[in-house]
Amino acid sequence: MDMTLMFENGTLEARLLKLLLKEIPITVKEAARELKVSESKLRRICKGLVSRGVIQMEGKDDHVYLRLIRKDISFHGTNPSQQRAIKRKGRKKKKKDEPDSMMYA
């Protein structure tokens, strides 16, 4: 029985897998340009996915193509662009050690 692979939404792995689900075939160089990361960083991520049996890397040197092996992939978590900023008040809290009167000024 195969289990569905879960990936955190917004991570580089998830972004690469979503790209592979849309565009096939694609080279490492094209994927790095599309995802706006360095080619060496993308190759490290790809090697991890290859070792887990998710993708396959085919070709030599400059023309290494990425191919998705498993299609049972799901993404969880919120997309970073959907996260709402936390509003913080600008006032500082009053310290208990400070006296209220102007007696010590």
Which percent band covers the strand fraction?
A: 15-25%
**CATH fold naming of the domain at 5-75:** Arc Repressor Mutant, subunit A
The gyration radius over C-alpha positions equals 24 Å
Poorly predicted residue ranges:
none
Give the count of helical stretches: 3
CATH superfamily (homologous) name of the domain at 5-75 = Winged helix-like DNA-binding domain superfamily/Winged helix DNA-binding domain
Order of helix and strand elements from N to C terminus: EHEHHEEE
Number of strands: 5
Regarding quaternary structure, what we see is single chain
* Morphology: elongated
- Determine the structural class based on helices, strands and strand pairing: alpha+beta
Q: State the helicity in percent bands.
A: 25-40%
List keywords for this structure.
3 helices, 105 residues, two-stranded parallel ribbon, 21% strand, Arc Repressor Mutant, subunit A, alpha+beta, 5 strands
Please give a structural write-up.
30% of the residues lie in helices and 21% in strands. The chain has 105 residues and is an alpha+beta fold. It has a domain at 5-75: Arc Repressor Mutant, subunit A (Orthogonal Bundle). Strands 2-4-3 form a three-stranded antiparallel sheet. It has a two-stranded parallel sheet with strand order 1-5. Strand 3 and strand 4 form a beta hairpin. The longest helix is centred in the middle third of the chain and has 13 residues, at 39-51. The model has no long low-confidence stretch (mean pLDDT 79).
